[in-house]
Write a structure and sequence with these properties.
It comes from Nibrella saemangeumensis. By secondary structure, the protein is α+β, with helices and mostly antiparallel strands. Helices cover 22% and strands 40% of the residues. The protein has a single domain, classed as OB fold (Dihydrolipoamide Acetyltransferase, E2P), CATH 2.40.50.1020.
């Protein structure tokens, strides 16, 4: 029997608190000749596009930077950011659902984005989701809303 997936809808204060708990600083992103600092908790998903990475933020905005997804992955905390396959990394704070369909696992993010999980990475991704959820449940006093 599978363990239930608990999804959390975090308030902005909750996102900031989790960021402090996991020691998430701002990420400096190169953009058109200058650098832009962005709080990591605002990053919902990263999508690789060749030698570029498209950032999808929690406010719906996007930003393309001239670094590969592999380089960006090395700068992110592994307990919060999970690589689903060669083109996508998600922030587990925005995980809304995990769906199983004919041996294909798909995650659904808070903004409705659906991202498939590589078959080879499925076990690792599910372990990372469970570890993240255990860590969140261990935090007390968080402004969370849980649904099964």
């Amino acid at each position: 029997m599978e363990k239930p997936l608990y999804t959390y809808q975090f308030t902005t204060a909750g996102l900031e608190e989790i960021s402090r708990h996991f020691h998430m600083s701002e990420l400096t992103l190169p953009f058109w000749g200058y650098r832009k600092k962005m709080p990591m908790y605002r990053i919902m998903r990263l999508e690789g596009e060749g030698n570029y990475t498209r950032f999808h933020f929690n406010d719906g905005s996007e930003l393309v930077v001239s670094l590969t997804l592999k380089k960006m992955e090395a700068r992110l905390p592994p307990l919060l950011f999970v690589r689903l396959h060669k083109k996508n990394i998600i922030n587990l704070m925005y995980l809304n659902d995990v769906r199983y369909d004919n041996q294909q696992v798909t995650v659904v993010l808070a903004n409705g984005d659906r991202v498939e999980v590589s078959r080879r990475k499925t076990n690792l991704v599910m372990k990372q989701i469970q570890d993240f959820q255990q860590e969140i449940r261990a935090l007390s006093g968080m402004p969370l809303v849980a649904t099964a």
